[in-house]
Amino acid sequence: MLGALLGAARGLPAEIRLARPEVTVTLRINQRARRFTLRPTPEGGAVLTLPPGVSESEVRSFLLRHATWLEGALVRQPAMVTVAPGCLLPVDGDPIEIAAVEGVRAPRLEGGRLLVGAGPAGPAVAAWLKRRTRDRLAPLAHDYAAQVGQRISSISIRDTRSRWGSCSAAGRLSFSWRIAMTPPQVQAYLAAHEAAHLVELNHSPRYWAVLARLMPDHARHKAWLREHGRGLHRYRFDTV
Fold this sequence. Notes:
By secondary structure, this protein is an alpha/beta fold. The chain is built from 6 helices and 14 strands.
């Protein structure tokens, strides 16, 4: 997990429940963090990322100072969307209506709509997004890896919260299947981003130089994810 640990692993509680605003804050320690980072979650909670070595009193003092900001941020959070017939779901960056059609066995794009069959739409659409992510990102990642003289040992597709992709020292790449909801250029950026880690397993200047060779305009796609990525987690794919 590249250093991201539950606060409880360092003697802190895993969560702190606030009275104002009324919210549960999950604590996470990141070995590379140099400051406190507080963010609301689409589910109506919040996550506080901490550097190692902080005390519970420091955490509570920080939350008290930022209570007003957090209260406003939670109000501004977009509402959760349950994936079901009639809702709009971004696919390749464009909003697509989900439509229930009798006889459809597996979700498919047709006529500008995502057709689903009988039964709960969420799990079926999630499975479809997973397949789409693998079909799109695997060839891109292998191509970018070849461009820097590297090989990928495996690719996994998951629903991760804290990152869009990862690369291990053994050459194993992992991607969030919610990436299928982003524009194709952003999908390509994620593939290039992780392929560059096959050369430099860090975010040093050398790493960014490798990524720039693969994708000179990577900065604007990174900016898109920073601005819009959090909103992709407001879509719920559980059974309705």
